[in-house]
Amino acid sequence: MKPVRPLRTCLQTYTNDFLYGTDANMWEVATQYEGNNVRRIVFEPQEGVDGGHSESRDWLSWEVSCLEITEPCGETCEAAMMDCVGLGVRGCLVENDE
Any idea where the domains of the chain sit in the sequence? Predict the structure, then answer.
C-alpha cells in the first residue's frame, strides 16, 4: 500500500561501511515499492575521515541540503563546503552562491 503522504528522507553511507550495499535495498523498497521520496548519498572516505559505520562529517549540513530545506548549493558553494569538510571543521554551512 502506497502512503497517502510519501516520506521524504535521506540515506547516507560510506563505501567502507560494513553494511554498505544494504542501503541500496532500503532505497529500492522505500522508493519503488512504497512510493517515498528518498535520496541516497554515498561518501568515499577521505584523508582524515574514517568513514565506516558512522554519520558523515557535518551530517546536519548534508541533511539540510538533501531535504532541500535551503536552496541547492552551486559550484562555488560546493567547493567551499568540500574545503571546509576537508579541514575537519564542524558547522560548514555556507551562504548559497547562486
Answer: 1-54, 57-98
CA distance 47 to 31: 33
Question: The cell 574545503 sits on which residue?
Answer: 83
Place of cell 569538510: 85
Q: What is the pLDDT of residue 60?
A: 77
Integer Cα distance of 53 and 71 in angstroms: 29
Cα→Cα distances 64→8, 24, 42, 72, Å: 12, 21, 16, 10
Amino acid at 80: A
Give the pLDDT confidence score for residue 10 in this predicted structure.
82
pLDDT at residue 45 is higher than 80: yes
